[in-house]
Amino acid sequence: MYTLVEQVFSEESDEGGGVDETAPPKSARGPDIEFPLKRKDIDLLIEAFRKKKHRLHPKHVAQILKEASQTLKRLPNINVATTSISSQITICGDLHGKLDDLLVIFHKNGLPSPENPYIFNGDFVDRGKKSLEVLLLLLSCMLAFPGGVYLNRGNHEDLIMNARYGFIREVHQKYKHNAERLLKLIENVYRWLPLGTIINNRVFVVHGGISDTTDLDMVKSLERDKYASLLRPPVAEGAAPGAETIDKVEWKQVCITHKIIIPVIK
Predict the structure, then answer these.
(1) What is the architecture, at CATH level 2, of domain 39-195?
(2) Which of 49, 71, 154, 266 could serve as 123's disulfide partner, Cβ 3.0–4.6 Å?
(3) Which parts of the chain span the membrane according to its record (predicted)?
């Protein structure tokens, strides 16, 4: 079941102002996509993003983020991918907001599907000027093509990193009146992104890599949603005042998979 977006999103500045917020967005102001997302909606998004047409309505942005969070929440910590249907699987490294690179990949290699699956191995945002479009297109493809897209969390799927490398500034520039609401939804997406992908039970794809201390059983069993940021680890449950507040063993496992340099942990 698809849930409605609960927040009220302002259209002033972001969408021209003076528009009834209860009315459906007009296609003249951006692609008029429908939920649940289908191939035609992905085509509309690609066309709009490629030609730099009117920006996607903030309500649509919010709904993509909410639907993606619900889908990601149902996934395990480590994606399980297979080539039993396809003869190959395409693994894409850091996109860092380079929309043109993503569109070239889709143009040359085809859109995702169970017969043409992709793994996007983290760092979707920051540095590039189209980080939001890249993130929204990847999430939309995951929703529209079940079994065709696997997303791994990277070290830049983190709002603290985004504050330094540009993504938060980009969201504020593109959605001035809705930025904080959208960033909260983006943070929830980050929390639920899987930490890696295993292909055919043989190949482990993860953003940061592995070490001789990697414990896959621990990675598979931890509560990934509590890691809103890897730079500010969560407090260990039940910790007494003045006692150790960080589960350093678990935090180290998550940091290794995400290419985070860890302060001295003993």
Answers:
(1) 4-Layer Sandwich (3.60)
(2) 154
(3) none
